Amino acid sequence: MNLENVPEEESLDPADWQLMRSLGHRMIDDIMTYLETVRTRPVWQPIPEKIKAYFKQPLPVEPQGTEQAYQDFLEYVLPHPMGNIHPRFWGWVIGTGTPLGMLAEMLAAGMNPNVGGADHVANYVEAQVLDWCKEMLGYPAEASGLLVSGGSMANLVGLTVARNSKAEFDLRTHGVHAAPRKMTLYGSQETHSSVQKAIELLGLGSNAFRQIPVNSDFKIDISGLETAILEDRQEGYQPICIIGNAGTVNTGAIDDLDRLADICQREGLWFHVDGAFGALAVLSSELRPLLVGMERADSLAFDLHKWMYMPYEVGCALVRQEDDHRSTFSLTPDYLTHSDRGLAGGSIWFSDYGIQLSRGFRALKVWMSMKEHGAQKYGRLIQQNIDQARYLASQVEDMSELQLLAPVPLNIVCFRFVADDLDDESLNDLNKELLIALQESGVAAPSYTVIDGKYALRVAITNHRSKREDFEILVREVIRLGKKMMHSGQP
Amino acid sequence: MNLENVPEEESLDPADWQLMRSLGHRMIDDIMTYLETVRTRPVWQPIPEKIKAYFKQPLPVEPQGTEQAYQDFLEYVLPHPMGNIHPRFWGWVIGTGTPLGMLAEMLAAGMNPNVGGADHVANYVEAQVLDWCKEMLGYPAEASGLLVSGGSMANLVGLTVARNSKAEFDLRTHGVHAAPRKMTLYGSQETHSSVQKAIELLGLGSNAFRQIPVNSDFKIDISGLETAILEDRQEGYQPICIIGNAGTVNTGAIDDLDRLADICQREGLWFHVDGAFGALAVLSSELRPLLVGMERADSLAFDLHKWMYMPYEVGCALVRQEDDHRSTFSLTPDYLTHSDRGLAGGSIWFSDYGIQLSRGFRALKVWMSMKEHGAQKYGRLIQQNIDQARYLASQVEDMSELQLLAPVPLNIVCFRFVADDLDDESLNDLNKELLIALQESGVAAPSYTVIDGKYALRVAITNHRSKREDFEILVREVIRLGKKMMHSGQP
Fold first, then answer.
1. CB A318 within 8 A of CB A273
2. Same domain, yes or no, for A352 and A414?
3. Minimal Cα–Cα distance from A243 to chain B, Å?
4. Contact B374 A69 (CB under 8 A)
C-alpha cells in the first residue's frame, strides 16, 4: 500500500477540546436551569405546526458543527417537552427523572461500555444494582436478574422463561408447534397489555391468555381463576403460568399474590408477577403487607424509571432459578465464547440472560442514585405519593361536582366531573373535552381510562416533585373547567 | 384528612441547586479529560480483586449524598472500563461513542420523555432520524421504522413482522401452534446468533432455521439455498423468510443481496437483511455496489452504535410496508387510546411498532450527531476503517510470522501468529495465550473467533479514533509476543 496516496486520517473527536468542554459547561447551566424552573412553566403545550414542519428537513450531508447542533436543540427541541418532569404531570404511569440520574447518563455514555459481557466494571455495577433490587424487594438473593428497557421487556423476559421452563420438551429447538397441548396463561382482565403483547410475540397466541374477571376492587377473582384452570385441563390444554398484578395500570389494584402463589404451587404453574410500579410499594411499611406473596414469584418484573424516579430507560426482570433464566437465553457461538482470563473473561455475561447482546450502562444511574438518596428516602417518597393519592381522593369525595370512580389502594386516582342532569354518555363527552382543555391549559396533565363504561380522568402519581398544593390546583381547575363547559358547551 | 399530622413533603431535587450545578461542571471537566487522554492509557486491564469485592456491599439505606456518589464513581468505576473508547480496541463489533453523543445523552435524560407515544417533540425527532436513516441507506421513504436497543432487537422486530405477515392465519390470536405447516427460515451458517435467538423467542424453534453453507468467501451458497427451499416445500414445510447478511460477524462477508431478493420475490418469501454494521458501508461509494439489493428488503436491521459511532444503545429496524409493521405490534387498551387533540394526540405512537411501551429519547444523540458531522463525514470515516482493515491485512500478508485466515471484504481482519514447526492445535493454543497476553498488556484489544477450526485474532474496526500507526503497533506486538512465547512457552 502506497502511503503517499492515503488521505490524512480524521476522527469524530473535536479539533478543539476546549470548545467542546465549554459547550458542555453551557449545557450543564442550561439544563440545570431548565430543571430548577420547571414549576414555572406549563406542564405541556401543543407543538406549533411550524415546529413540526421543521422536522421534515432532509438528511444533513455537510457538517453544521457542534455549536449549531446545540442551537437547534435549544430552539426546536427543548421548548416542546412531554411534561413528565413537571410537578403536575400524572399521565399514564411515567416517571420524573432526577438531576443526578441525568448526569449519570452522561458519565455512562462517556465510558460507553457494552454491558453484554466481557470483564469490565459495568458488569459488576449492574450485578450490584440487581443485588440491591432483590434486597429491597425481599426477593431471594440467589435469584438471577437483568436490567432491561422497562416493564414490557421485563414481562417478556419472565414469560419467555416461563414458557421454556414449563414446556415438556425442548421448546427452543422444536418451537411452540411441537407442543402436544396448547399452553395457556392466566391473569386478570386488568392485566397490562404488555403481557398480551409478550404472549403474542412468544407465539402462544393471545387466545391462550385467559383474562379472568375481577371483583369490585379490581383484583383477580380467585374462584374464577381456579375454575378456568380446571376447565382448561379437562379440555386438554396445558396451563403453564399465572400472572399476578402488583399494581394494575387502571386503578393500582394488587392481586392476592400469596393465594396466587399457593395455586401455582399446587397446580405446578409458573408464577410471574407484573409489579411495574406497584412492586416498589414494599418500600412503604404500611403497604408492604399487601404485597405478601410477591417474594414467592418465579419471575418478577418491575420498573425503576417509574416509581424509583430514574431517567428512562430502566426496568428489571428477576428470575428465582438462575438455571431456568440462563437456559432460556444463553447462546454462545465461537465469536462470543467466554474465556477464563483476558477481556473475554469474567463470570457475568448479561447477554446470556436476555434478548439484547449490545447493552448500555443503564445500571450507573441506578447505582449512583441509590447511593445518593438511600433506600429509606425512596420509601418515604413512595409513601408520599400514596398519601397524595389519598389526599386527592378525599378532595374528590368532598366535592359534589366530582365523583371517584374506583378505590384508591395505591397511587392512582380515577374520577370525573359530574352534574345531576347529565347521563353517562354526556358525562363521557364532557370529561373528554374537559381533559383536553386541562392539558392544553398547561395547568396539569392527567391521562384517562374507561372504568365500567365511564370516561375517567386518571391521575397516576409517580412524581417526586408533586406537592399537596398541586392536587388542590387540579381539583379547582377541573371544577372550574367543568362548570364553564356546562354553561357554554365549550371549555 | 388532618393536615396537621402530614409530614413535610420532600423531593429528590437538590436542596442546593448551585452545588448540583458545580458537580455537573466538575463532571464535564473530568469526563472530557478522560476522553481527550484516552490514548495515553492502556486499552483494558484486569479488574483488581479488591475492586470486585467492593461491589458486594449491601443496599445503601441511608443517603450518602451526591458528592459521595460521584467520588465512588471516580474511585471504583471510571478506572476500569471495557476499553472500547480507546483507539486500539477492536473486539467483537463495538462502537466508540463521541463527546457530543455523550452530552446529548445528558440532555435526553434531562428532558426525560417517554417516546412510546403522546404528542411531544421527541417523537418528531425520532421520526426525522428514521427519515434520515432511510435516505442514507437508500431505503424507501414511505417505509416505517423504529429506533431500538441494537441489532438483536432490530432483527427480532423484523422477524416478528415476517412471521406474522407470512402466516396464513391470525397468528397474533391463535399462535404458532395453529399453523397448518411448520414455518421455516433461511440464512447462511455465518448468520449472527441473534437471528437464531429471535427465531427461538418467536416460538418457531431453532430447527426451523435452515443454516445454509457458505462458499469460500463466506457468502451464502445460492444453489444450496434454493435446494433447501425446494426440499422443504416438498416435505410439507412453509418457507417464510430469507435472512441476508450485509456484513457477517466473523469476516464481514456480504451475501449477494440482489439475488436473495430475486429468490424471495419468486418464492413469495419475506426478505430480511441483517446489516448490523455492514449496512452502513453504503456510505462508502466504493463499497456501495456490494450492497445492491439491500434496498429491496422487506425489513432491514442495523445499528447506529457500531459503525455510526453513537454511544450505546441505538439500533434501527425498518419495515417496507407500514401496515405489516403496525399490525404486528399495535395493541391499544383503554388507558392507551390515542386522541385527536391534547397530550394523547399526535400521529406518532412508536409503541405501536415494537415491543417497548416505555421508550427513552435515544433519537437525540443521533439527531445532534448527524447535524454535527453530516452524512459525508460518516462516509469518509467508514471508508477510513475499511482502508485500515486493508492496511492491516497487507501488513499481515507481508509478515512471515502472521497468516491471514479469511478475505477482508469490509472492516474485519482475522489472522494468527504462525511458526513452521507448529501444527494447528499448537497454533490454536499459542494464539489463545497470545491474545490474552496482548489484552492484558493493555496495548490492543482484538477479540477472537474460530475459522475452519483455526483460532483467529479478530480485528473489527468500527473505531473513529484508530489511526494507521495503531495497526502497526498491533502487528509489532503480536509478533513480539508470539516469538517470546515460542522461546519461553510463556507470554
1. no
2. no
3. 18
4. no
Indicate the residue of A152, A203, A331 with minimum beta-carbon distance to B176.
A203
Q: Quote the pTM value.
A: 0.97
Pull the grid cell for residue B237: 414445510
pLDDT over threshold 60, residue A2 = no
> Å from B399 to nearest chain A CA?
14
Lookup result for grid cell 453551557: A26
A55 and B467 within 8 Å at the Cβ level: the answer is: no
Give pLDDT tens digits for A192-204.
999 999 999 999 9
Eight-class DSSP state of A235: T
Same domain for B126 and B89 = no
CB B282 within 8 A of CB B246: no
- Report pLDDT for B5: 59
The confidence score (pLDDT) of residue A1 equals 46
For residue A389, pLDDT over 50 is answered with: yes
Q: Does residue B56 form part of some domain?
A: no
Chain B, nearest residue to A191 by Cα: B333
Residues A250 and A389 in one domain: no
pLDDT tens-digit map of B337-387: 888 888 888 878 999 999 999 999 999 999 999 999 999 999 999 999 999
pLDDT, average across residues A307-319: 98
User: With an 8 Å Cβ cutoff, are A109 and B125 in contact?
Assistant: no
**A203–B177: do the CB atoms touch at under 8 Å?**
yes
Residue % of chain A over a pLDDT of 70: 98
Handedness of CA A318, A322, A328, A330 (dihedral sign): positive
Predicted-complex ipTM score: 0.97
User: How far is the C-alpha of A308 from the C-alpha of A382, rounded, in Å?
Assistant: 8
Q: What is the pLDDT of residues A463-481, one digit of tens each?
A: 999 999 999 999 999 999 9
How far is the C-alpha of B279 from the C-alpha of B261, rounded, in Å?
15
**Shortest Cα distance from B29 to chain A (angstroms)?**
7
Q: How many CB pairs under 8 A join A and B?
A: 556
- Of B290, B314, B488, give the one whose Cα is nearest residue A114: B314
Using CA coordinates, name the residue in chain A closest to B385.
A9
Neighbours of B44 (CB within 10 A): 27
Residue of B nearest to A456 (CA): B335
Of B129, B322, B310, residue with least CA distance to A57:
B129
Tell whether B356 and B380 lie within a shared domain.
no
CA distance A53 to chain B (A): 9
Q: What is the largest CA-CA distance in chain A?
A: 89
First to last CA, chain A: 74
Q: Are strands A299-303 and A315-319 parallel, antiparallel or unpaired?
A: antiparallel
> How far apart are alpha carbons A277 and A196 in whole angstroms?
18
Structural domain range at position A257: 113-360
Cα–Cα distance measured from residue B93 to residue B11, given in angstroms and rounded to the nearest whole number: 42
Cβ–Cβ of B120/A64 closer than 8 Å?
no
Count of CB atoms within 10 A of residue B398's CB? 10
Which residues from chain B sit within 8 angstroms of residue A313, using beta carbons? 356, 358-360
- 3-class secondary structure, B277: coil
**Residues of chain B neighbouring A17 (CB-CB closer than 8 A):** 32, 36
Using a CB-CB distance cutoff of 8 angstroms, which residues of chain A are in contact with residue B34? 110
Biggest CA pair distance of chain B: 89
- Domain boundary, last residue among A325, A360, A395: A360
Q: Are residues A438 and A353 in the same domain?
A: no
Torsion angle (degrees, nearest 10) of CA A8, A9, A13, A16: -20
Q: Which residues of B touch A311 (CB under 8 A)?
A: 109, 112, 360
> What distance in Å separates residue B263's CA from the closest CA in chain A?
26
Contacts of A448 in chain B (CB under 8 A): 335, 337, 344
Q: Does residue A13 lie in a domain region?
A: no
Name the residue facing B464 among A11, A63, A84 (closest C-beta): A11
